[in-house]
């Protein structure tokens, strides 16, 4: 069995009710549910939530909510892996063995069915523990600067000051959209950001963290521009 698991806790702080707040005329979580369903690669699309309103919205858009997430997995300090482990264990207990599971974030409106399928293909082809979305940094991380206690500028890596940007190694970061993994990798808690994982590269213009109101506005601008271009 292949599962999509969408974690959607009710207690978001910086953007109230973020998971079901309207984003370009649909609840935010609906975009992730739609992409999962359109991919056609899942036997079940589960939303793991502790919130009845989120559960109802999820069902309206075609996901299943077969359990309510327990309180001990719903606080500010619970990581993603225990939530995915809980969902896999719950489904396994119903006599439906899970082979692969994809953690799909509820606040990833740029995720596409095509990329989800590409992630599964890469996971299968490489026989890896995980395959997850990444994108490149727009600026060389080796030339990053910080402000010291006196408000002055310092380089994190001053040894790279005289090296041309094009000669520096390209760096990538987690795109925060989806994480395919084998059930064994999830249940054993194997490291996602490690050599057992392979990347699913995405273009930078389709990657946007949405943690603040400013992020939200920028994401809607990008999303509307992409929709207009596609017409």
Summary keywords:
single chain; 231 residues; alpha/beta; Spore Coat Polysaccharide Biosynthesis Protein SpsA, Chain A; 6-stranded mixed beta sheet; two-stranded antiparallel sheet; 21% strand; globular
Largest sheet: 6 strands, mixed
Number of helical runs? 6
> Whole-Å distance between the termini?
36 Å
Spans of 5+ residues with little confidence (pLDDT < 50)? none
Q: State the fourth-level CATH superfamily.
A: Spore Coat Polysaccharide Biosynthesis Protein SpsA, Chain A
The general outline is: globular
Record field, number of beta strands: 10
EC number: 2.7.7.81
Keywords: Nucleotidyltransferase, Transferase
Organism: Pseudomonas bubulae
GO molecular function: nucleotidyltransferase activity
Describe this structure in words.
This is Pseudaminic acid cytidylyltransferase. It comes from Pseudomonas bubulae. It is an enzyme of class 2 (transferase). With 231 residues, the protein is of the alpha/beta class. The chain has a single domain (2-135, 172-230), classed as Alpha-Beta Complex (Spore Coat Polysaccharide Biosynthesis Protein SpsA, Chain A). It has helices spanning 28-39, 52-60, 80-93, 113-126, 183-188, 213-230, and strands at 2-7, 22-23, 26-27, 44-48, 100-104, 130-136, 145-147, 153-155, 172-182, 197-201. The strands form 3 sheets. Strands 4-1-5-9-6-10 form a 6-stranded mixed beta sheet, sandwiched between helices. A hairpin with a 5-residue loop joins strand 7 (145-147) and strand 8 (153-155). Helix 1 packs across helix 4 (113-126). The longest helix is centred in the C-terminal third of the chain and has 18 residues, at 213-230. The protein is globular.
């Amino acid at each position: 069995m292949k599962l999509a698991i969408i974690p959607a806790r009710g207690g978001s702080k910086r953007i109230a009710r973020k998971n079901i707040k309207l984003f370009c005329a649909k609840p935010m979580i609906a975009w992730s549910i739609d992409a999962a369903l359109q991919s056609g690669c899942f036997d079940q699309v589960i939303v793991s939530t502790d919130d009845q309103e989120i559960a109802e919205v999820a069902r309206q858009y075609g996901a299943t909510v077969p359990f309510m997430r327990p309180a001990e997995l719903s606080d500010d300090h619970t990581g993603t892996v225990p939530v995915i482990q809980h969902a896999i264990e719950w489904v396994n207990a119903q006599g439906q063995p899970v082979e692969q599971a994809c953690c799909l974030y509820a606040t990833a409106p740029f995720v596409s069915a095509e990329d989800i399928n590409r992630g599964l293909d890469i996971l299968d082809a490489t026989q890896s523990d995980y395959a997850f979305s990444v994108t490149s940094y727009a600026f060389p991380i080796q030339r990053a600067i910080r402000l010291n206690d006196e408000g002055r500028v310092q380089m994190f890596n001053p040894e790279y000051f005289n090296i041309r940007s094009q000669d520096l190694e390209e760096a990538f970061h987690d795109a925060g959209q989806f994480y395919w993994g084998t059930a064994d990798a999830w249940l054993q808690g194997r490291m996602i950001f490690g050599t057992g994982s392979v990347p699913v590269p995405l273009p930078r213009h389709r990657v946007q963290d949405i943690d603040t109101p400013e992020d939200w506005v920028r994401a809607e601008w990008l999303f509307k521009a992409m929709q207009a271009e596609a017409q």
